[in-house]
Amino acid sequence: MDVRTFEAFSMKDAVKSVKKTLGADAVILSTKEKPAPGGKGTLYEVTAASAQSDRRSGMNGARAQSDQVQAPSMTTELDHLSGQLATLAASLPTRGQVQALEAGMQELKLLMIETLRHKDGSMLKDLPADMVPTERQLSVMGISEPTMVDLTRHLRSLPNPEKDGESYYRDQAIRWMMKRIKIAPRWNIMPGTVSYQGLVGPTGVGKSALVAKLAAHYAMREKNKVAVVSLDNHRLAASDQMRIFCKIINVPFLAANAPEDLLSVHETFRGTELVLIDTAGVSPKNKAGIDALAAVKELSLPIDFHLCLSSTESPSQLDHEVRSFLSTGLSTLIFSKLDESWAYGEIFNLSKTWSLPLSFFSIGQQIPDDIERASRERVIERIFGL
After folding, report:
1. Is the pLDDT of residue 358 over 90?
2. Which of 2, 194, 282, 333 has its CA 20 to 30 A from that of 309?
3. pLDDT tens-place string over residues 333-347
4. Are 347 and 220 within one domain?
5. CA-to-CA distance for 358 and 351, rounded, in angstroms?
6. Arithmetic mean of pLDDT, 207-234
């Protein structure tokens, strides 16, 4: 197998060099960034291998001998790696320890709330007893302090309830919050036109799984003519995984070498009504990577970008991710891993703070069952534990 290293001043040019030299089926083994000579700019280094095996006569015997010589060292390396993995597994916290830590954090948050109730000038000071359960529930769920202040001011302005004040204030809080949850309209998919929907986001949020779920949902349930395009040239075998899945659900697939390849999708897959675009995960600190995504919007195509976020991330991390990806021209927010999270207030906070509507929720691993359109009712249900 021919393994080579390529350098360029952009990841796009480096990948192009790989494809040009080793062919379209080349496998990217690793990527990294390093300072350019003289300290001016950044070099992108890509190590790739040709997918074509060397079949020349006489090589098989030599390769067999080489394998026999290397087998013992490979076994030693595997044993060493197994030992390292066992050590790492032993050092990881157990599920019980994580749950105990979460419980401790909840107790600390409740203690802080109780402290605020006695602080002069706080909206929570001398809060009516019937409001306390609602305020405590929302605080535990992570509703931001500015929202809590606005909501508490609204509840204080209401006439006193005649009976069952606790239920009264909870219902009023639900009505107030329902009016402030933005839900995106359904995608406009019509025969004779093509709807381009791209998913962007940081690494590890389950973006490719979301693309797979959406492709299955719209192809199998909505009966739309769907095609999937992968712009993810960075992860090893990322396109291969998506290609296999698309073959299973009988959906056309294209691994694009450059964003410009999107311009020919409607001709390559005639009759397509919905094109789902899977992009490479980008760190919110990687400005060059985010700028490359924003450049995709410069194509003469009506592409909508949807930011995929994990509901298990911390509030500060989620806020930073939204702030970083705004330059791509976001249309909606999509949240994954709702089944792994217990505090849902940040979904409300982000949508309200950045005026971005919610479009989809991923609530499990089953395809296409565990994806649903976002709704105000679902957000309220999660926050209030209804």
Report:
1. yes
2. 194
3. 999 988 888 768 999
4. yes
5. 7
6. 90
DSSP 192: T
The answer to whether residue 305 scores a pLDDT higher than 90 is: yes
What residues contact 87, with CB distance under 8 A and at least 6 apart? none
Confidence of residue 200 (pLDDT cuts 50, 70, 90): very high
CA distance 33 to 229: 26
Flag whether 91 is in a domain. Answer: no
Total number of domains constituting the chain: 3
First-to-last C-alpha distance (Å) of the chain:
58
pLDDT at residue 55 tops 80:
no
Helices 287-296 and 315-325: crossing angle in degrees, nearest 10, is 50
Q: Which helix (H) or strand (E) holds 31?
A: strand 27-35
The sign of the CA dihedral 245, 251, 257, 260 is negative
Q: Do 252 and 310 fall into the same domain? A: yes
In a domain, 20, yes or no: yes
Instruction: List % helix, strand, coil for the chain (3-state, nearest 5).
Output: 50, 15, 35
